[in-house]
Amino acid sequence: MPKDLAKVQKKIQKKEGAISSLHENSRDAKKLRRAGARSDKLEKLAAAREKALQPYLQRISFFQSAAQEASEPFTIESMQALIEIYLDRDSTELSTIQSERRPGRPASTREDLLKQRIHAEASEYNSGYWMPDMEDATTLDKLKGWNEQWTSLGTLKYVRVARDGSRHASSFPPKGKS
Predict the structure, then answer these.
(1) pLDDT of residue 174
(2) Closest to 83 in 3D by CA, of 169, 155, 165
(3) Cβ contact 174:130 at 8 Å
(4) Cβ atoms 171, 165 nearer than 8 A
(5) Alpha-carbon distance 39 to 104, whole Å?
(6) Which residues contact residue 74 at a Cβ distance below 8 angstroms, ignoring those fewer than 6 apart?
(7) 164 falls in which pLDDT band (50, 70, 90)?
(8) Residue 92: how many CA atoms within 13 Å on its side-chain side?
(9) What is the mean pLDDT of the chain?
(10) Whole-number Cα distances in Å, 95 to 54, 79, 129
C-alpha cells in the first residue's frame, strides 16, 4: 500500500476520478488523511534535522574558507589559531547587546543563547574541538572542493583538537567525544 501522498492521490484519482467527490469518512479519504499526516511529519523531521546540522555546516564552511587561502597543510598551532578565531565570532555581537541593555534589566533571549553557545563551544574546545583534519593534504584538497552539502562530508577525515595541543582522530558525524 503506498504511503506517499502523491502516490495515494494518484491511485485514488485513477479509481474514483475527482478527489473532491469523496465522502468525508470513506476509506479513500482516510488514506488521504493518513498520507497527508505522514508527509507533514516527515517534513517536520527533515526541518528539525536540517536545523540541528546547521552549526556543523557553518563550522566546516568557516574552515573551508580558511583552507582556500592555504597552499600547504596546517600545523596544530595554526589549527588552534583558526579555532580561536571561529570561537571569537560572536563576541562583538554579545558586547553590543550587553552595552545596549539598560542597567538592572535582565539579559535578552539572544544574549542568553549567545552565552550558552560560547560556553558550549569553549568547553568542547577544552576537551577536543571537532574539525576536518587540516594537517592531511588529501583532506585539505577535498575540503577546498566541498560543495557545502552534509552528505559529501563523509569523505573527509576529522580530528579533535584540544586547547592543550592534543589531537586525536574522530569520526563523522560527530558523536560526543568520538
Answers:
(1) 80
(2) 165
(3) yes
(4) no
(5) 48
(6) 82, 134, 135, 140
(7) very high
(8) 3
(9) 87
(10) 24, 26, 24
Q: What is the pLDDT of residues 74-84, one digit of tens each?
A: 999 999 999 99
C-alpha cell at 64: 573551508
Grid cell digits, residue 100: 545596549
2-58 pLDDT, tens digit each: 578 888 777 777 776 666 667 788 888 888 888 889 889 999 999 999 998 899 999
User: What integer pLDDT is reported at residue 5 of this predicted model?
Assistant: 80
Q: Which of 174, 177, 148, 152 is nearest to 58 (CA)?
A: 148
Cell digits for 112? 542568553
What is the rounded CA–CA span in Å between residue 82 and residue 90?
A: 14
Q: Which of 174, 80, 67 is nearest to 126 (CA)?
A: 80
Q: Length of the chain in residues, anyone?
A: 178
Distance CA 178, CA 161 (A): 12
